[in-house]
TrEMBL record:
Its EC number is 4.1.1.23. The gene is pyrF. SMART domains: OMPdecase (SM00934). GO terms for biological process: 'de novo' pyrimidine nucleobase biosynthetic process; 'de novo' UMP biosynthetic process. InterPro entries: Aldolase_TIM, OMPdecase_type-2, OMPdeCOase_dom, RibuloseP-bd_barrel. Residues 16-258 form the Orotidine 5'-phosphate decarboxylase domain. GO terms for molecular function: orotidine-5'-phosphate decarboxylase activity. This is Orotidine-5'-phosphate decarboxylase. It catalyses: orotidine 5'-phosphate + H(+) = UMP + CO2. Pfam families: OMPdecase (PF00215). It is an enzyme of class 4 (lyase). Belongs to the OMP decarboxylase family. Type 2 subfamily. It comes from Spirosoma rhododendri. Pathway: Pyrimidine metabolism; UMP biosynthesis via de novo pathway; UMP from orotate: step 2/2. The keyword Ribonucleoprotein does not apply.
Amino acid sequence: MTFDELSHQIFKKQSYLCVGLDTDPRKLPAHLLTEPDPVFAFNKAIIDATADFAVAYKPNIAFYEAQGPRGWESLQKTLEYIPGDCFTIADAKRGDIGNTSGLYARAFFDPSAAGLDFDSITVAPYMGQDSVEPFLEYPGKWVILLALTSNAGSADFQRLPTTPDGDVELFEAVMQTAKTWAGADRMMFVVGATQSTVFSRIRELTPDHFLLVPGVGAQGGSLADVSKCGLTESGGLLVNASRSILYASDGTDFADKARAEAQALQTEMATYLGQYCSRA
Ligand SMILES: O=c1ccn([C@@H]2O[C@H](COP(=O)(O)O)[C@@H](O)[C@H]2O)c(=O)[nH]1
């Protein structure tokens, strides 16, 4: 999916919601456990219930890898089931020396390799340019680079000063350098919703790039704050919620409750698009 197509979907659906498919087999509603593939049955119901309100889906690969070959199969079926008008994100946080990154890229971007054809993948920037470039060799595919993550440990390294006056923190140096590797049409950055106090600085640094923003819902980040400082004329945000949608109920009504959570976020997002984007 291109930058313009993603932007178009945001204004069409009046939403920048990304539903995180962090599907934990231990949290599935009991009535699904007799299904041949309970994880896929759950994901299918969640996608059916939320697709009107979401522009992206983000399976977190850890949840599938932890189940071995069965998990990979559930992931493949889930990816194929996601509607074509939605952007897909493999939240895999990969990155290694170039030839190894090349194989990670192949796994997630070349359907003839591991049966997966994601639009994008999350990548850790720590190993530098040659660890990221192999992902950019796939035309039309996106790299979503970790910049300032939502967890408390983000302060350990990402906020370290890189200049004597302390004006440029490590995450800012990462964004400044990485945006020379690919344009806003191929690269996004991960910035946690819990980091809303630095969103204005981030927007000065990257006025055009999409930001993938996890951390609303279960992690307590503010959708209002993130939207105020993060929205652009193209939309420019994908705000992820996983647990607050997936596990809104553990009963037979789980899909209805997930739909209600997604709809509530979309309704709020439509308000912010009207407030902060003249194009809306
Ligand atoms: O900084 C980051 C980067 C990635 N994540 C991932 O996003 C989701 C958040 O799930 P919630 O249940 O909505 O908290 C999850 O897959 C994380 O691994 C993040 O939270 N923060």
